[in-house]
């Protein structure tokens, strides 16, 4: 009798678990707000309004604490630190570390910023841009064939 009661209890628990609503992973955070904050932050980054971008991304990290939010917050601090030194450089490193702690394989996909054109670049010329002198064999004049007797 105890066996039948145990079996009924186990089956009841299994059926109730199967009927429980499963919430998708994207409902854990407020995705609409997170998306809005992300887009506004990127817009501010593109406009070089780093303080406003930092504010948006900081709020984003509290709404959706994901690697992407910390990465862009770190990037906004990094860009700010290039104009005004101070704590911004340290804060950028902390946020980059947090982003890669959450997702070691993270790569920015929404906005891949390029370095500002105002910075001096020190690039070495690649092999494709360096002129190549022809080899001595290529400089010899073509030989004329002698007529056969």
Distance between the termini: 119 Å
Chain-averaged pLDDT: 75
CATH topology of the domain at 28-102: Serine Threonine Protein Phosphatase 5, Tetratricopeptide repeat
Q: Per the principal axes of the C-alpha atoms, what is the gross shape?
A: flat
Q: Assembly type of the shown chains?
A: single chain
Number of strands: 0
CATH superfamily of the domain at 28-102: Tetratricopeptide repeat domain
CATH architecture of the domain at 28-102: Alpha Horseshoe
- As residue ranges, the low-confidence spans are 117-126
Helix content: 55-70%
Count of helical regions: 6
Radius of gyration: 31 Å
Highest-level CATH class of the domain at 28-102:
Mainly Alpha
Structural category is mainly alpha
Element-level helix/strand string = HHHHHH
Question: Which tags fit this structure?
Answer:
mainly alpha; 149 residues; 0% strand
Characterize the structure shown:
- The chain has 149 residues and is an all-alpha fold.
- The chain has a domain at 28-102: Serine Threonine Protein Phosphatase 5, Tetratricopeptide repeat (Alpha Horseshoe).
- The protein is 57% helix and 0% strand.
- It has six helices and no strands.
């Amino acid at each position: 009798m105890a066996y039948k009661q145990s079996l009924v209890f186990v089956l009841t628990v299994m059926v109730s678990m199967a009927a429980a609503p499963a919430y998708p992973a994207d409902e854990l955070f407020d995705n609409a707000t997170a998306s809005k904050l992300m887009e506004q932050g990127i817009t501010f980054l593109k406009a070089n309004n780093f303080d406003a971008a930092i504010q948006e991304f900081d709020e984003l990290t509290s709404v959706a604490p994901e690697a992407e939010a910390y990465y862009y917050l770190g990037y906004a601090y990094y860009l700010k630190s290039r104009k005004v030194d101070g704590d911004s450089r340290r804060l950028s490193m902390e946020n980059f570390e947090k982003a890669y702690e959450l997702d070691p394989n993270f790569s920015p996909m929404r906005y891949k910023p390029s370095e500002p054109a105002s910075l001096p670049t020190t690039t070495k010329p690649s092999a494709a841009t360096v002129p190549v002198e022809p080899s001595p064999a290529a400089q010899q004049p073509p030989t004329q064939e002698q007529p056969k007797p």
